[in-house]
Amino acid sequence: QVQLVESGGGLVQAGDSLRLSCAASGRTFSSVRMGWFRQAPGKEREFVADISWNGGTTYYRDSVKGRFTISKDNAKITVYLQMNNLKPEDTAIYYCAAGSGIRLSRADYWGQGTQVTISS
C-alpha cells in the first residue's frame, strides 16, 4: 500500500508561483512513476505532469510546459510541482498520484488533493 500526502496549495494572484509537495510512503519506488493530476469544477480530472522514479523522465500537458516543473527528492521520497506564471485557468484541486505508464496512464494510488486557486 502507498500513502501520498500533498501540501502547498493556496490562493494566489495571476502571475504568482506555488510549489506543491507530495510525500510518499509505504513501499519501494524504484519502478514507479509519480505525478500530478488536476480537476477544475465541472470538468474531468486531467493529467498535469509525471516523473519516473529511477531515471527522472518527465512528461507535461501542453498547457503547462514552460511554466510547471516536476522534480523529486529520492531521499525524502517526495515529488514537487513548481508552478510559475500561474493563470486563472490553473485553478483546480491538484492530486498527487503514483503508478505506471507514460503520463501515469495507470495511476494506482492517489492523494487527498490540495486546492489551488488563482485570482485574476
Short description:
With 120 residues, the protein is an all-beta fold. Helix content is 0%, strand content 55%.
What does this structure look like?
This protein is mainly beta and 120 residues long. 0% of the residues lie in helices and 55% in strands. It has no helices and eleven strands. The chain has strands spanning 3-7, 10-13, 18-25, 33-39, 46-52, 58-60, 68-73, 78-83, 92-100, 106-110, 114-119. The strands form two sheets. Strands 2, 4, 5, 6, 9, 10 and 11 form a seven-stranded mixed beta sheet that branches. The protein is globular, with a radius of gyration of 13 Å. The mean pLDDT is 94.
List keywords for this structure.
120 residues; 55% strand; mainly beta
The shape is globular
Give the helix/strand class.
mainly beta
Mean of all residue-level pLDDT scores = 94
Total number of strands: 11
The number of distinct helices, counting runs of at least 4 residues, comes to 0
Terminal CA distance reads 40 Å
| Low-pLDDT stretches | none
Largest sheet: 7 strands, mixed
Task: Write the topology of this structure.
Layout: E1 3-7, E2 10-13, E3 18-25, E4 33-39, E5 46-52, E6 58-60, E7 68-73, E8 78-83, E9 92-100, E10 106-110, E11 114-119
Parallel strand pairs: 2-11
Antiparallel strand pairs: 1-3, 3-8, 4-5, 4-9, 5-6, 7-8, 9-10, 9-11
